[in-house]
Design brief:
alpha/beta, 15 strands, about 15% strand, disordered C terminus
Length: about 350
Amino acid sequence: MRELHTQSEDSGRICKKAYAGRDIFVCLTERQMPENVRSEYFDDVILSKDMWDGNFNRYIFKHSIVEASTAVKGQFFIYLMEHFPQENQFVYLDPDCYVYADFTELKELLERRPIVVCPHLLQPGNIDMELSSAAHGVYNLGFLAVNRSAEAERFIKWWAQRLYLFCYDDIRRGIFTDQKWIDLAPCFFDVEILKHRGYDFATWSLLDCGMTKEDGRYYVKGDPLRFIHFSGYGNVIEKCMEDWLPEGEHPFRELYREYVKMHEENNADQVSETAWSYGTYDSGEKIDDKIRKLYRGDYDVMFGVEDPFGLSDQELRRMLGRRQDGKWRKVAESVKRDGMKVTFLKIVEHLK
């Protein structure tokens, strides 16, 4: 089983303990490998650009940091499946997930089911989170598991293709990064919806969660706790605990305090304050988010510029104000050159 992550030493350590003999990989979307990113708990740290098929700078320029971190996930699955043909199970976890116990049920499930996802909610009652799930996606993509099968590979390739052109935080258009696409996955593929409460327990799970501690082990309405997704670390989680947990001591509050301590110890060097290296041009000029959005909407410029990081806001703004002839033919050829196996001609025509 290959564990996919995006940067969390504590998750790496506990996953190594839970998965003896398993490999833990981190996918990092930075230009260069930072000195402080490697760990004895990671088998390897892979830069997104190094596993990419095509022009990575052209692709990543159009994304904000959150969009970029999610846009590479489909290709990361493809990369690991191709480079580790002896492996039959692949599990992705977000960097703010903390594993507490072996994924016993999941490993058994992946022996017979090709794709496993976790829904945000397993019971009605929290209207705020029901509305949020409707907007951001029914299934949480802080976790995703697949086995080596033709069905899983079809799913991953479909997902990666959608992320190639449409991995944006654009809820008004029905898109939320890599996540909203997975609402369609059970319609198209053989997907197992994992309803074990101990997997992907998170902020959105807090209301009437029924978490207990028995003989040093944690349970969620009887299901043993496997991992917590500490999404919204800081003010968001603290506000949700205040609103949705009963007053007084609670098992989740205990676990959150422990996580905060580990998080702050890992952040002693202020690594969380490090500027994103894809947030600036090669010159050091900060990229205007408005330019990113204009760039991703103009396929002439996007596929006509070899390396947008070598330009500037002023140069791109001038280019984005022009239109060129032969748009659709050029776009289709450029998409093919970038390693994609499908032609997006109809998609682009629709966006005309």
